[in-house]
Design brief:
alpha/beta; Arc Repressor Mutant, subunit A; D-Maltodextrin-Binding Protein, domain 2; 3 domains; seven-stranded mixed beta sheet; two-stranded antiparallel ribbon; transcription
């Protein structure tokens, strides 16, 4: 049995948001002493102070701040579950929870989901865009049933894979753009747009972070925007470079020997969901599309 209740986490978040015990009590319709007792009990369980009192203000400690994001996610998920449970009174809707790495071709993904919803018109889909280790965490936590990413959890099996080619790309007015046979080492002198690992528990270095000057973003779409605004270069998937809306604003640099990166995205399914008809059909669609268009990016 869990030692910390959802209500205690909610109280913790509210004290931070409101800035004090009395204010949190007003927000939660509880007395200040009740709020104080709940926080003290929580601190005793976790073994470290969560707040320091500065005058009448409750200031979160570094330890408390390290728990805040995960606590918010936990409470939000519980609230969403409660809402879904109450709202689905007449029929239990089927929901597909899927995490897909930001590098996976978006047009290919939408085509697959379109075919899937044709087969299951009443299907609800929760789609998570992830980077690096975040997909594995969502699988391990049971948040998603299917994950498509370069990193999968230990003990899981990849059902199929899709290689994605990445090219160092920049705006045509970038200083490197007009040059030929650019060495990788030369890129170190220019700002790189980096897509950060979305993991909450782990953080993986992609191994391509040679530049000393970086601008870090959260997705391929954000990286493209920054490159088009001439903020630096980025390693981007070929399917993004091929989009017509990026013509004239985004193109690969001419690296020596046509150098590129390849990331292999794998799909994995939670064992408890593998016999689900929706997930079986999804797996067939992925497999069919990737066989028909093996190099589609």
């Amino acid at each position: 049995m869990h030692k910390i209740s959802l209500e205690q986490w909610r109280t913790f978040i509210t004290v931070y948001d409101c800035g004090g015990f009395a204010q949190a009590g007003d927000a939660l319709y509880k007395t200040q002493s009740t709020i104080s007792h709940s926080i003290k009990k929580l601190e005793k369980i976790v073994g470290s102070p969560l707040f320091e009192l500065v005058g009448r203000k409750a200031v979160i400690t570094p330890f408390g701040e390290s728990l805040l994001s995960a606590a918010r996610q936990l409470v939000t998920q519980a609230d969403n579950l409660e809402h879904d449970a109450i709202s689905q009174k007449s029929e239990v809707g089927h929901t597909l929870n899927i995490a897909v790495d930001t590098l996976f071709p978006r047009l290919l993904l939408t085509d697959i989901l379109h075919q899937l919803t044709d087969c299951f018109p009443n299907l609800n889909i929760q789609l998570y865009e992830t980077v690096l280790s975040r997909c594995a965490e969502l699988l391990e936590d049971g948040t998603v049933d299917v994950g498509v990413a370069s990193l999968i959890p230990k003990g899981y099996i990849g059902h199929w894979n899709n290689p994605v080619e990445l090219f160092a790309a920049a705006h045509p007015q970038h200083p490197l753009f007009a040059r030929d046979n650019i060495q990788l080492s030369e890129l170190e002198n220019y700002r790189q747009i980096v897509i950060r690992d979305g993991g909450l528990r782990t953080n993986v270095n992609s191994g391509w972070l040679g530049s000393r000057n970086r601008l870090t973003v959260s997705s391929v779409a954000e990286a493209v925007t920054c490159v088009k605004q001439q903020l630096g270069f980025a390693w981007l998937p070929s399917w993004m470079l091929d989009r017509s809306e990026n013509a004239g604003e985004l193109a690969p640099l001419k690296l020596i020997h046509g150098m590129k990166r390849t990331v292999v995205l794998q799909a994995t399914i939670r064992q408890s969901s593998i016999d689900d008809p929706v997930i079986q059909q999804l797996s067939k669609l992925f497999d069919r599309y990737l066989k028909q268009i093996p190099q589609q990016q």
